[in-house]
Amino acid sequence: MSGTPDHDNTHDDAHDDAHTGPIKTPKQLAWAVLFAFVAPVIIIILLANFVSSDKKPAAGSEGLGAEAVAARIQPIGSIELKDVNNVATLKTGEQVYAAQCSACHATGAAGAPKLADLAAWGPRVKTGYEALLTSALKGKGNMGAQGGGDFSDFEIGRAVVYLANQGGAKFDEPKAPAAAAAASK
Ligand code: HEC
Q1: Which of 27, 43, 50, 157 would be a feasible disulfide site paired with 174, CB 3.0-4.6 Å?
Q2: Residue 4: what pLDDT?
Q3: What confidence score (pLDDT) does residue 180 get?
């Protein structure tokens, strides 16, 4: 029983495939064109990029740079050097007051004499600038040394003058450290 219709069809299909190749529709042709021409161009571009990429830092590798590593392994805590002779970088009395002293002296917290409270400051002002400065530097009563901050003595002095003058004193701005050193020579 050779040559049944079924058998013939199967045979013919296989035969056609062998001669026409895999591309049978315009859509398949479009894909074939794409992969034959466009894909190689893309691959070449990517390869060229890859070859020249060693000069650019790869994503995430900035963390291995010398500076980044140094920043990460630096000892805990660092010191900041203040140029106490450069008056321009130092805070004014008002700035120090706002940053450090106002916490107590604006409200009278902890029994602090309030800013511009003449009655509270009057007797203190009479003790003189040096006495007030000493209190501010070393602390007095509920006030910690330097008012609890880390300003230079000169800056504290400016804040004392600011506070005291608001409280009725007429103290002069303290001399800058360099000027004071020069004056004492
Ligand atoms: C933690 C609160 C607090 C802070 C912050 C603070 N003070 Fe005082 N201050 C006080 C108290 C309380 C007194 C009153 C102390 C007393 O007479 O027992 C006082 C008193 C003073 C006096 C008068 C001292 C005297 O001999 O009568 C001066 C001057 C002064 N403070 C300056 C400053 C300056 C300048 C700062 C900021 C750098 C500052 N204070 C920050 C609480 C504070």
Answers
A1: 157
A2: 46
A3: 58
The answer to whether residue 55 is domain-embedded is yes
Range of the domain at 30: 21-78
Number of domains in the chain: 2
Average pLDDT, the chain: 81
Please tell me the distance between residue 110's alpha carbon and the centre of ligand 1 in angstroms.
Answer: 9
- Name which residue leads in pLDDT, 65 or 84: 65
Hey, which residues does 143 pair with through a beta bridge? 140
Residues 96 and 147 reside in one and the same domain = yes
CA dihedral 137, 158, 91, 156 (to 10 degrees): 0
Phi, psi of 143, rounded to the nearest 5 degrees: -95, 125
> Hey, whose CA ends up nearest to atom 13 of ligand 1?
112
pLDDT at 35: 86
Among protein residues, the one whose CA lies closest to atom 19 of ligand 1: 112
**SS3 (DSSP) at 67:** helix
Residues ≥6 apart with Cβ < 8 Å to 93: 155, 157, 158, 159, 160, 161, 162, 163, 173
Given this model, what pLDDT does residue 1 score? 45
Which of 181, 184, 176 is closest to 84 using CA atoms?
A: 176
Q: What are phi and psi of 47, to 5 degrees?
A: -65, -45
The structure's pTM equals: 0.62
Q: Are residues 104 and 169 in the same domain?
A: yes
